[in-house]
Amino acid sequence: MSILAVGSVAFDSITTPAGSVKDMLGGSATYFSLAASYFTKVRVVAVVGEDFTSEHENVLKKRGVDTRGIEHAKGKTFRWGGKYLENLNEAKTDFTELNVFEKFQPRIPVEYKDSTILFLGNIHPALQAAVRREMQNVQLTGGDTMNFWIQGTRQELGETLKLVDVLLINDGEAKMLAGQTNLPRAAHHVLAMGPKALVIKHGEYGATIFFREGAFGIGRHPFRAPALPIEEVKDPTGAGDSFAGGFMGYIASQEELNREVLKRGLFYGGVMGSFAVERFGTERLQSLSREEIDARFEVFRELTHLE
Amino acid sequence: MSILAVGSVAFDSITTPAGSVKDMLGGSATYFSLAASYFTKVRVVAVVGEDFTSEHENVLKKRGVDTRGIEHAKGKTFRWGGKYLENLNEAKTDFTELNVFEKFQPRIPVEYKDSTILFLGNIHPALQAAVRREMQNVQLTGGDTMNFWIQGTRQELGETLKLVDVLLINDGEAKMLAGQTNLPRAAHHVLAMGPKALVIKHGEYGATIFFREGAFGIGRHPFRAPALPIEEVKDPTGAGDSFAGGFMGYIASQEELNREVLKRGLFYGGVMGSFAVERFGTERLQSLSREEIDARFEVFRELTHLE
User: Fold this and answer.
1) Chain A residues within 8 A of B295 when measuring between CB atoms
2) How much is the pTM?
3) Of A223, A229, A305, the CB nearest to B303
């Protein structure tokens, strides 16, 4: 099944202990699409400016991503600059230039309307809801959000959460959204807001999926996937979006949605996140093979597997 | 095989979001011994004051712990007071009264000398080393330490690390000890200091064991065990010592030391830590059954197990 991904395309300027890059292709839709492209067909809806060249677009096209939904607007592409210091889990933002992204109104090509799986990247929750409502054939919706929307657009986010089947956020976002410092309690609060499942990403410690009672007919026991202890983290940017791409992409590639598929999806999410951070920007995600991905999946499995 | 545990016995005054307790029996040797007692015979070496009654000692005796190595000294037992605020992972110390613990010189009863497994709780590294050197029949030594010793007694700690087979510390301690912010790199630095294996405890995210190349003849791939997402964390005090007790206790109960035993030990460590935090002090660890422990082991296994 093909996935429709809606999100940002950006040029990132990043400094980490491993070096610096300027105006490197990034954005949530970019990372998500590249990661998911190893599992299924991906269609993308985003907006870019006049500085987004065919060379940039080819990064996605080479991976078979359908880019007809990328709107080319007058002006400059969204730009973000940030630093990761000693603590690679947290970025310090240097600047955010929304540019064409400020007025982004997702326009879905008619050819995309038969998509059955939807991923709502980290954009204004009202836009996420509008996209979801427009997509009548969707059977599973994944979504992301962040502190900015949790604090600033609480009510709209509440409406959007009723339309999302699987929400993917990190520990801090889950606790903020729920107003709870205990993680499993926060998870149950968030699930009561609408999603059937909640994936909480723990960065270098992996991720946990919590289920609403009766969701997907699979009981409510949580499941946890590890992350690989990686010595060479070059650039953490996009790890969460790559995680989402691996998770949703794997699910889209399966005929049935059951507990085992969601579990394996969580492992594939970790795998794609672990590849993403090995190089700056999307470099590593551009040139993987399914064999490399499955080999790392086995490493992840071995990491926690008891005989 | 029986374990000899050397460490502290204390009376803790603890405040958490779930409530407050005063002068509750605690200390690293206490938590460790109770947790390990479900797997093997435990002998303990520690010092207590005149306020340590037979009622306190019976907590250990009821679990079959050999308390002949507990020295009764003039004065008061070690006391610690602390608060856990919203972030249950970190305690704010209110007071530390070393009392009889200040002059603690571990004296090992002659009946303990045949112990083959040794756990060196979090005490001065020079004392840890002296105990290890005195125990000639020991085949496996586990050890703990903390920031205080890493910063204050670096050289002595370096000597002790050469005598420890498995070091159990948390993320922050590992990074401080190695002078490295990347966890797997920190692990390799620590392993170069002496231990054959390093268990890094991630609190609510579980634990990872790293192996020195060739150690135990099992290769150097790390292994990670999850922690259970727990809704009711009443009191995190002693979680790390209970983890160590479950880990070392399980290992001591096995005939052979191989990769699978170390992996299962890591799971049992998480299991005992998860029980410890459910009640204040050692309450939960006093009245478990092996059936309850094994049932939770299965829950932990299911938490990350792929078909």
Assistant:
1) none
2) 0.92
3) A223
